Amino acid sequence: MKILIPVKRVIDYNVKIRVKSDQSGVELDNVKMAMNPFDEIAVEEAVRLKEQGKATELVAVTIGPAGAVEQLRTALALGVDRAIHVPADAMIEPLNVAKILAKIVEKENPDLVLLGKQAIDDDANQTGQMLAALLDWPQATFASKIEMNGGDFSVTREIDGGLETLSLTLPAIITTDLRLNTPRYAALPNIMKARQKPIESITPDSLGIALQNRLTVIKVTEPGKRKSGIKVADVAELVRRLKEEAKALS
Amino acid sequence: MSILILAEHDSAALKAATLSTIAAAKKLDLPIDLLVLGEGIDAVATQAKNIEGLRKIILGDNAVFKDILAETFSQAVLALAGEYSFILVPATTFGKNILPRVAAKLDIQQISDVIDIESPQRFVRPVYAGNAIQTIETAQEKNILTIRPTSFNAVALGAAQDTPVEKKEFSLTPPRVRFVGIEASKADRPDLSSARIVVSGGRGVGSKENFKIIEELADRLGAAIGASRAAVDAGYVPNDYQVGQTGKIIAPDLYIAIGISGAIQHLAGMVGSKVIVAINKDPDAPIFQVADYGLVGDLFTILPELHNELQK
Ligand SMILES: Cc1cc2nc3c(=O)[nH]c(=O)nc-3n(C[C@H](O)[C@H](O)[C@H](O)COP(=O)(O)OP(=O)(O)OC[C@H]3O[C@@H](n4cnc5c(N)ncnc54)[C@H](O)[C@@H]3O)c2cc1C
Q1: Of A196, A228, B286, B301, which sees the most CB atoms within 10 A?
Q2: What pTM did the predictor assign?
Q3: Number of structural domains, chain B?
Q4: Coil, helix or strand for A2?
């Protein structure tokens, strides 16, 4: 089984983001970047499937600016075999990402595409589902458990009302949720070895995809701030204020 | 020009998130059709008649819709999509799973998690876990939106209207995915997404056994229970209790955060609450920056006291 793992370069989740004063977006210069945490989980799951002898080849792909090659190197250090970089603007929309991925799937013929359920920058939660639609493949989104039995996958999904299990026939798309696994850190020797692993560059043009965005960002602003609150001395004061002042308890 | 809303329901009634989505649609000032898919869903149609301002209710009552699969539900929406200028669903795991499939098939860039509609071309949505707010404009002829339910007050259910109900048969390509089962959470407390009061516990609660004290407080207040990711990861509570960027986004009248530090990913899910109370032994915990009332101390001493105080 061959697995394709799309990964995205995003601002590290620990960084407190800053909105630019001209409202054009979020400050990306001199900010620590990292692999989208949900994609790290996808890479980890793919590596485990290979370690268990269930996957034969792992290919990572990123669509993004030159710097995104760094995230491909991370994926390679974690155990991915080779990688593809499709150069594009950082603000590329999910539909275009899905279209490019569909072309890469045509070229690479993976049995499974494993990717994060959402990227923590635009929080869109679309790419996996869109790719599944473009390919007419079945999907299991928000996966918290993946089991392989023969050529089928049994996937447990985190949904609003609990946990749901689906059975999918390959080829298929699975998007990862937080509790699927805990990603490992890359070991230093593997980071060194990853430098030797191949990264191919494929332009959107050569895939026949034009990258115009459909939506125009008019402005990006800071969210409204909450009025600062107070510290109460004890439980009695808390309950009194909740009843009398906030009218939140009766 | 008209709007199609795909309803989320539990075969007996519409989910509150659907009622909020209808409220959002009303801001677009166009005729609204509600599509209800499922098996044995007459009760849902009857309830939907109590909503004012729907042009019609489209009922796809068929065994193929018994289980919610993105593959079948998206085909049904696509079969109807042609005549609509907007397609809306709530931004819940239901809507998020299905709608991007529709958008991709129609070659439309979906707009996720809409929190405000400024005009039929201009929408507001949070990005970066709500730490930035984006206003975007679309020139697409057809637009596909997921609506954040907490940002729109649910439409009221009033007197029965004479909204026509249209039964519809769909011919579908069978999907290569099969529904196996669902492990539903027990529903013996108010629903987290729509509860008036939510009591949430974090890593500070320490164990599944200790979580009992959170449950006791919740029951005393008639509240729903929420949790941080750390509490869910540690197995104190089920996954669907998670509040945050990647869990449930909620906005109750009162949110009580207990033993939760207040990471941005958690705040993203509850900062819209009307009143926030934080109980934490660390006076510098970031949760206090968003709390209206903060109480510094050990939760294991405070909660029993709170219980007694509420009993008075
Ligand atoms: C991609 C991604 C997505 C995420 N999504 C979410 C999400 O949706 N929701 C979410 O919640 N998190 C999410 N997180 C995790 C988030 O970053 C934090 O790790 C998490 O919220 C921390 O949970 P916590 O506050 O319970 O634990 P901690 O940060 O460990 O805080 C525990 C708190 O308990 C207090 N405490 C300990 N003992 C006591 C006591 N006896 N009495 C009183 N107080 C006590 C401590 O002072 C501390 O403040 C996400 C992270 C990533 C990377």
Answers
A1: B286
A2: 0.96
A3: 2
A4: strand
